[in-house]
Amino acid sequence: MPTSKRNGLASSTAVSAVGLRKSYGDKTVLDGIDLRIPAGTVFALLGPNGAGKTTAVKILSTLVTADAGELRVGGYDLATDPQAVRAAIGVTGQFSAVDGLITGEENMLLMADLHHLSRREGRRVAAELLERFDLAEAAKKPAATYSGGMKRRLDIAMTLVGGPRIIFLDEPTTGLDPRSRHNMWGVIRGLVSTGVTVFLTTQYLEEADQLADRIAVLNGGRIAAEGTADQLKRLVPGGYVRLRFSDPVRYQSAAAVLREANRDDAALALRVPSDGSQRELRSILDWLDSVGIEADELTVHTPDLDDVFFALTGPSADSAAGSTARPTANPATVPHQRKENDR
């Protein structure tokens, strides 16, 4: 099987899909997508609302049947051995499965019963997970009294009761405040450090950038692009080096020789198109030295995942990037779309 490396360890493929298709009536939700996710990594699936992210999760977690495709999860064929797949996975959906009328500990013990653990084993596992997720002090309190972040941590702790090797997290931080979101990132990193594979869907592009080993952008039922965060960012043009001057005379001299730069006369700043690479930055600095120009401030700006997302899922994405765009594609084929009206 294909392998990848994380923390120096070889890993096998945890989830694979070839030609995954799903339609509801005459609406095609997933139009032949391919995925391959190495074990012990975080994979993030991005896309606008209605792109099919949750449908993909439901299919791969055996909750919905695919119309077509060769699908394997945890080494098991989804079509012929769904029970083995269910035993290997855990699922945390968009909406919490926590019962607010009972305590956190009781929620955990209920999950232990559903996994047919003995009473003694169930209490041991529940106690370990409550401690691990910093919920031990609140274990005897009704879950309804928990904050949003605590409920989400309890939700994931409940998912881990059965010891899954693969976890599907469908928008796990939606509705959380920034501090709780960052705490959840720590939880996810901790899971992966133990060898768990995380399949993540999220609306927060920074979240994917921070957590994911690989990212796929789903649009119109197809994978518009897939790669590491850095690979995807290189798909989108628009990077530049900003040179700011405090002396108007030096600014005018620089503008006269850097004719390809965009001028900001009010700020005494020039924007020189650049891919942000070390080689190109060194070239710009060497050239400035050769003509005797010294800027007071130099900053490098590169496209972020917001730029990638808007370029690949915007109105002109289908005609410009097509449904087969990959990190090896010519960046000029993916238009840069401004974000002012998309917030």
TrEMBL record:
**Keyword Transcription applies:** no
Q: Where is the composition biased (Polar residues)?
A: 321-331
Biological processes, Gene Ontology terms: response to antibiotic
What InterPro entries does the entry give?
AAA+_ATPase, ABC_transporter-like_ATP-bd, ABC_transporter-like_CS, ABC_transporter_ATP-binding, P-loop_NTPase
Q: What is this protein called?
A: ATP-binding cassette domain-containing protein
Cite the source lineage.
Bacteria, Bacillati, Actinomycetota, Actinomycetes, Kitasatosporales
Q: Which Pfam families match?
A: ABC_tran (PF00005)
Q: Which UniProt keywords apply?
A: Antibiotic resistance, ATP-binding, Nucleotide-binding, Transport
Chief site of localization = membrane
**Region (Disordered) location:** 316-343
GO cellular component terms attached to this protein's record: plasma membrane
- Top-rank taxon, per record: Bacteria
Q: How does it sit in the membrane?
A: Peripheral membrane protein
Q: Name one GO molecular function term.
A: ATP binding
The record's subcellular location field reads: Cell membrane
Q: Where do the ABC transporter domain residues begin and end?
A: 15-245
